[in-house]
Design brief:
With about 550 residues, the chain is an alpha/beta fold. The protein has 22 helices and 13 strands. It has three domains: about 5-85 and about 285-430 and about 460-500, Rossmann fold (3-Layer(aba) Sandwich); about 110-280, 3-Layer(aba) Sandwich (Rossmann fold), CATH 3.40.50.10490; about 505-545. Helix 15 links the parallel strand 10 and strand 11. The N and C termini lie far apart (about 70 Å). The protein binds 6-O-phosphono-alpha-D-glucopyranose. InterPro entries: G6P_Isomerase (IPR001672), G6P_Isomerase_C (IPR023096), Phosphoglucose_isomerase_CS (IPR018189), SIS_dom_sf (IPR046348), SIS_PGI_1 (IPR035476), SIS_PGI_2 (IPR035482).
Length: about 550
């Protein structure tokens, strides 16, 4: 078996000599191309055949996966080993969706009884709120839920609540994350304190944005309903139970989770409470089951049939071997509008690292920039650059075969046609001759053809992957999120980095804390760098300070 260095060198050599560089020819010369370059899990199909890879590429990527010990490390993660070495923690978001009935142990003790106890408490609470038996302080049913959290305590539930809108039969859900007072002000505008429940969601219960918004929400409730109302209008989700206590939230309204759940992997924990309130405990269970189904597939399927493995290997190929700096995630699904933003945290906070697990500088590159918007909207905005710009940006398309609007089937067929047309266009492109012929067939005169045709050329050979599934139901959303979590894991093993810490966000937080008194009083500004001092002074003078 080659070493990791040898496996990477072999991939680099293959990229310039062995990988296909004419995708039209690759399809034309190989009827089995699609068959060799896709994988399925039940209704879910991942097609990577439009990427510039062949079976030799796959073999070399498999060799790299073996040299990087991806499977061994995967098994260590599932087994509850402390693979997050810099924080000395296990990584067990998979235990939160473990539907097997089997134990999952950390340091010799089974965590499943705690996991199931919190799930049961969340279900009781959700039933009470949804049925109107747990009311506001005046006895009125809760009509609106406001989740106050940021990062992993916001992006997951906000994304999932929107994604599963057709399944909502609970209170309306709102999300406040930004410390910008505009966010909470706009959200509370129009809500009635008597019928509003706040969830204060913070793993650490120290995050300044969340604590500031929670205090503002608390005053809003107290001013309208009195101090005694806090216990009926607040609940909390955290791993820091002692800190929640001090906020005045009763114990039976505090839902815990554990340090082995990373913030960006926490949607499966009590952080998912807004989703459970919106769709009910049973459908939340379906969401967990979807995650579990993907976990089993990730652990059991051979590499080429394994969706997370293949998504990760092709992702690495594009980023580290082909050197493409970003990837676009384009769900042809309006309800997945927040998926790209969710994946930005999942992927970029996990794999945006400059050192390896052993603290050495990363040799080469680590994770790409992840971005995107739903299709078809993106087509009318930034797709120009993806088709004809000078950077190559691999695209990941997601689309459901069926919508929740059977009466609008024509819309959905248009959506599917657009999605599949984009990947075909990126792959095949259009030659100068084709552009000229097309113009001639429309009666354009020869001189105009010569002038304009070069602008109508598409290089083609632009890679994309497509994920097609039956319908975006809770189970499928669970599969999609777990698929992306594991792809991030696979890529991290190939880069040799720890995907589960996030030291890179610390410095800005520390500096903001130190700068707050300077902004408030102006004192100490002169000790800052010239730009920062001048910016503070300008803002202070504009605000009349
Ligand atoms: O849930 P919290 O402890 O409030 O943390 C919220 C977020 O803040 C941090 O800055 C981290 O970068 C994120 O990973 C985390 O999700």
């Amino acid at each position: 078996m080659p070493s990791k260095t040898e496996a990477i060198a072999a991939l680099r050599a293959h990229a310039s000599t062995g990988a296909p560089n004419d995708m039209r020819a690759a399809f034309a010369s190989d009827e089995g191309r699609f068959a060799a370059h896709h994988a399925v899990l039940d209704d879910m199909l991942l097609d990577w055949s439009k990427c510039r890879v062949n079976t030799e590429t796959l073999g070399l990527l498999e060799a790299l996966a073996a040299a990087s010990k991806v499977e061994e490390r995967r098994d260590r993660m599932f087994a509850g080993e402390r693979i997050n070495a810099t924080e000395d923690r296990a990584v067990l978001h998979t235990a939160l969706r473990n539907r097997s009935g089997e134990a999952v142990t950390v340091d010799g003790s089974d965590v499943m009884s705690d996991v199931n106890a919190v799930l049961a408490a969340m279900a009781d609470f959700s039933h009470g709120i949804r049925a109107g038996t747990l009311t506001g302080s005046n006895g009125g049913a809760i009509t609106d839920v406001v989740n106050i959290g940021i990062g992993g305590s916001d992006l997951g539930p906000a994304m999932a609540v929107l994604a599963l809108a057709p399944y909502h039969d609970g209170p309306g859900c709102h999300f406040v994350s930004n410390v910008d007072g505009a966010h909470i002000a706009d959200t509370l505008d129009g809500l009635d304190p008597a019928t509003t429940l706040f969830i204060v969601a913070s793993k650490t219960f120290t995050t300044i944005e969340t604590m500031t918004n929670a205090k503002t929400a608390r005053s809003w409730v107290v001013n309208a309903l009195g101090e005694a109302a806090v216990s009926s209008h607040f609940c909390a989700v955290s791993t820091a139970l002692d800190k929640v206590d001090a906020f005045g939230i009763p114990e039976d309204r505090i839902f815990g989770f554990w340090d082995w759940v990373g913030g960006r992997y926490s949607l499966w924990s009590a952080i998912g409470l807004p989703l459970m309130l919106a769709i009910g405990p049973e459908k939340f269970g379906d969401f967990l089951s979807g995650g579990y189904a993907m976990d089993r597939h990730f652990r059991e399927a051979p590499t080429r049939e394994n969706l997370p493995m293949m998504l990760g290997l092709i992702g690495y190929w594009h980023r580290a071997i082909c050197d493409y700096p970003s990837r676009a995630v384009i769900p042809y699904d309006q309800r997945l509008a927040r998926l790209p933003v969710y994946l930005q945290q999942l992927d970029m906070e996990s794999n945006g690292k400059g050192v390896t697990v052993t603290g050495e500088p990363v040799d080469g590159v680590s994770g790409p920039v992840v971005w995107g918007e739903p299709g078809t909207n993106g087509q009318h905005a930034f797709f120009q650059l993806i088709h004809q710009g000078t950077d190559i940006i691999p695209v990941e398309f997601l689309v459901a075969a069926n919508s929740h609007e059977p009466g609008l089937r024509h819309h959905h067929d248009l959506l599917l046609a657009n999605c599949f047309a984009q990947s075909a266009a990126l792959m095949a492109g259009r030659t100068l001759e084709e552009a000229k012929a097309q113009m001639a067939s429309k009666g354009v005169d020869g001189r105009a053809i010569d002038e304009i045709a070069p602008h109508r050329v598409f290089s083609g050979n632009r890679p994309s992957l497509t994920l097609v599934y039956d319908k975006l139901d809770p189970f499928t959303l669970g599969r999609i999120i777990a698929l992306y979590e594991h792809r991030v894991f696979v890529e991290a093993q190939l880069y040799g980095i720890n995907a589960f810490d996030q030291w890179g966000v610390e410095l800005g937080k520390e500096l903001a804390t130190a700068l707050l008194p300077v902004v408030e009083t102006g004192e100490g500004a002169s000790e800052r760098d010239g730009s920062t001092a001048a910016l503070v002074a300008h803002a202070r003078s504009l605000s009349g300070k």
